[in-house]
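Q: Two folds, back to back.
A: First:
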Amino acid sequence: MTNIFLFLGNLNMTELLVILGVVLLLFGGKKIPELMRGVGKGIREFNNARHSIEEEIKEGMKEVDKKKIEEKKAAE
């Protein structure tokens, strides 16, 4: 989780307050929760897609390993 926020390490408190102020001015107090919900849904969808790709890769690796084992048995 800390890897995501590494770029924030170079910002001091004043810069963070200015950024938060600009966000508040641009979106208003009522739109920020909607914006955060959208960001949360996007992150969730990204993680689900990443997880499904990882599972497909693992399944493919298992199939390759099974084929190698079968080939070794057939060669013996």
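A: Second:
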Amino acid sequence: MFNTIQKELNQLIDLGLDRTLRIAVTGLSRSGKTAFITSLINQLLHINRVNNPHLPLFEAARNCSIVAVKRIPQQDLSVPRFDYEANLNDLMRSPPVFPQSTRGVSETRLAIRYQRNQGVLSYIKERSTLYLDIFDYPGEWLLDLPLLDLSYQQWSLQLQGFFSGIRTELGRTWLEKLKKIDLSATANEDILAQLAKDYTAYLLDCKAKGLHFIQPGRFVLPGELEGAPVLQFCPLVHLTEEQWQKLKHNAASNSYFSVLNQRYEYYRQHIVKRFYQDYFARFDRQVILADCLTALNHSRQAFSDMQEGLQQLFKNFHYGKRSFLNRLFSPRIDKLMFIASKADHITAEQIPNLVSLLRQLVQEGGRYVEFEGIETDYTAIAAIRATQQVAVNQNGKIFKALQGVRSSDKQKITVYPGSVPNKLPSEEFWSKQKFDFDQFEPQPLEPGESIPHLRMDSVLQFLLGDKLE
């Protein structure tokens, strides 16, 4: 009874206020954020009040309560507009290509006009409008948010713990140069610039090997900060605790040690903190995307690196229930959806395994979120579907397989992609089994058609369903 009353009160508040829902689409690098937002916009714009065969699980589309959807100008004119049209043109090329990856902050706004079918407001206001603000950010920048709670020493020591395996090999050139520098000597700008360049090359090599835990993120995607001194520092992963203390007490203000400290603090306070304050304080709902299959293809370390990156994303978001009072004064994320992307790269019976694997990847953070009481969900989707499920007859036996255009050679193939582990693979598992999930090109898209997808309707239902009742 109380929940029903609270829901009605929430609706009454919405009637008097501009009903806006702000959704953050987050995830690590190459997890499919741009494809996801492009598809989400496209699915909504193609809703037909008479027939919605492409969105059977989205109740507002199924019961025809959505009257119309259109893109409208965003409120913040300082943020670049999400380039939906360019992304759509990429998909309509011959041959089609996936939209370009996110390279900066962008935003889009939709107005969803809908018919109220239930609740007290169906008698007061028959039609309403929900304004949907969707924000996109580079995955590389997101992993800088944990720096807000770390001093230069704490950050360096944390990265020291990750500096093993393939990272040791990739970072050898940069680290050898770093060790030769007398950190107590007067800093030379040219040497600092070259040191940062070597560290950036190391981070780019890590990214190429499928590693996700890359800090600082602006080094590999600097945007307007390219060449600025604020991006010319690096962690001191070679120092012991004793060496840190000695340098803190003895290094002059113009020494390498002090200048590196100063630049890190400036980056933390003026770049990372401002980014957080400008964009992350006002979200209502959040999507976290993860490309588990590509991580499985690379290595055990790449997979573990992705897990660490996902865990880090939890630490700087405000989670908690929104009551009809505190939502007026203290906006918080009240719904969170974890999504495994590229679910069209496996056969249908493997999707539950992929969802189970995703759950375990984010288990620690997921338990924290559920403890806070917000609504969470886990799913696997293909925002832009690239393959078709087919049945293959081999020696009288029927096997489920995939058919699509392989990215590596642009050849149309039919393949059985194999099994997805339903839990975190053990070390023994990695040594015995190698993964090789193919990458596929998008299917051709004709003008006026909706983007083919897999389970985007379930995403729309979770994110928007309660707001369109």
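Q: And?
A: DSSP finds 19 helices and ten strands in the chain.
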